[in-house]
Write a structure and sequence with these properties.
It comes from Lacrimispora xylanolytica. With 424 residues, the chain is an alpha/beta fold. Helices cover 37% and strands 28% of the residues. It is built from 15 helices and 19 strands. α4 links the parallel β4 and β5. Bound molecules: NADPH dihydro-nicotinamide-adenine-dinucleotide phosphate (NDP).
Length: 424
């Protein structure tokens, strides 16, 4: 029996909320709060009568700490699930500390305005010190550790699929299959087809910034940075088939490097089709991916936000997307003195997701783990004072919940491994 305040009502939130409502025994009460209250009301209307979870809605600007504090104090949740945007991570964490509730999210902080001089100064120092240039990193949220410890509260970071499930797969592999993990390759394959020449499967701003940034991987205790899409590979994904994939920087590399003792190399690969890459390069070349505001006809606009308004809403892709995703990790390491390799992955079918929650698999594979992470915390299975990434807790109850709530996983011994080359 618990009360959850969910902030955000987009693609991921919609799935997380529907899964909470399927799990009414745990989530007896939820409040859906977002910038656009009409979206929250529409989702509440869709769900009412089909769930015994009591749903309330509210309007909140999560960039405003006081507004979030006020909402928390009036609703009295046990925890806040942040499925708004990474821009709101710190303000929501501040509000949770002020109001005395636990915090959960699915993505690490990045600033909305990367030209902000105060942020930029810290960012540039970090680029030099750590050696990777992504706009997002965990330092901002890890910095809240002592404050959450002192308040006796838990902040659970990154309970989506990647980060999230891939991190839990790593903890599970270490607990049950290895004495020491030496390498982790995280493979994110979307074999879905939505029929558009170009669209992003989740928030375009977040997605395009991630994909157009430099790549990087972790090797022998430090970051190695690459040009965007510099390294390519091909992999024959179970239930999807052979796909091209590229090495990207990804946030869970940072936390896994810290939390998986003895790991020597961690890489992240994502599949992309040629049409997606050609469109993205063109948009980038003409400046449409820029986050710096420009003056247009007497109005200030941010190019990537304008582009977002032109692209199909990721939520609208659900009914048209066919095919499957396959996301998982290939681990190498040693057990009882012998070298071994295993692959843990989940396959998710876009159309099956749509039938269940009217959403495609990308939101589904993030929304389900957001519900599961929230369940781990509110039921007390994962709760201790401080700020934690998901791989720092016992993976077993989470892995069991993945099977139960729609993301079953497979462990494959001696899989094909990844060979990488320079893209042309
Ligand atoms: P959407 O853009 O679909 O939804 C974002 C929601 O947040 C919208 O409802 C939006 O409101 C709301 N919002 C934005 N700003 C504010 C604000 N200031 N105050 C209150 N609400 C606000 O994004 P997604 O659902 O695709 O993504 C949600 C989160 O999940 C993101 O942080 C994303 O990075 C993360 N994610 C994580 C993944 C993982 O595997 N770990 C994978 C995919 C996404 P409005 O409707 O008014 O715009």
């Amino acid at each position: 029996m618990s009360r959850l305040l969910v902030i955000g009502c987009g693609g991921v939130a919609s799935v997380a909320i529907q899964k909470c409502c399927q799990n009414s025994e745990v989530f007896t009460d939820i409040c859906i709060a977002s910038r656009t209250k009409e979206k929250c009301d529409a989702l509440k209307e869709k769900l009412e009568g089909k769930t015994s979870t009591k749903i309330e809605t509210a309007k909140v600007d999560a960039d405003n700490v006081d507004e979030v504090v006020e909402l928390i104090k009036s609703y009295h949740p046990d925890a806040v699930l942040n499925v708004a945007l990474p821009y709101q991570d710190l303000t929501i964490m501040d509000a949770c500390l002020k109001a005395g509730v636990h915090y959960i999210d699915t993505a690490n902080f990045e600033p909305e305005n990367t030209d902000d001089p105060q942020w930029r100064e810290i960012y540039e120092k970090r680029c030099k010190d750590l050696g990777f240039t992504a706009y997002f990193d965990y330092s901002w949220q890890w910095d809240y550790k002592e404050r959450f410890e002192q308040a006796g509260l838990t902040a659970l970071l990154g309970t989506g699929f990647d980060p999230g499930v891939t991190s839990v797969f790593s903890a599970y592999a270490l607990k049950h299959y290895f004495d020491e993990i030496h390498t982790i390759d995280i493979l994110d394959c979307n074999g879905g087809d939505h029929g558009y020449p170009f669209a992003t499967n989740f928030n375009p701003e977040i997605n395009l910034r991630e994909v157009s940034a430099n790549g990087s991987y972790w090797e022998n205790g430090h970051w190695v940075e690459t040009e965007p899409m510099e390294y390519k590979s091909k992999y024959n994904f179970p239930e999807v088939g052979e796909k091209d994939m590229y090495l990207l920087h990804h946030e869970e590399i940072e936390s896994l490097a810290k939390n998986i003792p003895g790991v020597k190399r961690i890489r992240f690969f994502m599949t992309f089709g040629q049409s997606y890459l050609t469109h993205m390069k063109c948009l980038e070349n003409v400046g449409m991916l820029s986050t710096s505001p420009i003056e247009f006809n007497g109005q200030e606009i941010v190019p990537i936000q304008f582009l977002k308004a032109l692209l199909p809403d990721p939520a609208s892709l659900g009914p048209r997307t066919v095919g499957k995703t396959n996301i998982g990790c290939i681990f190498t390491g040693v057990k009882d003195g012998k070298e071994k390799t295993i692959y843990i992955y989940n396959v998710c079918d876009h159309q099956e997701c749509y039938k269940e929650v009217e959403s495609q698999a990308i939101s589904y594979t993030t929304g389900v783990p957001a519900m599961i992470g929230s369940m781990m915390l509110v039921t007390g299975q994962w709760r201790k004072p401080g700020v934690f990434n998901v791989e720092e807790f016992d993976p077993d109850p989470y892995m069991e919940a993945l099977n139960k709530w729609g993301l079953p996983w497979v462990v494959c011994e001696n899989p094909e491994t990844v060979t990488v080359w320079k893209a042309e």
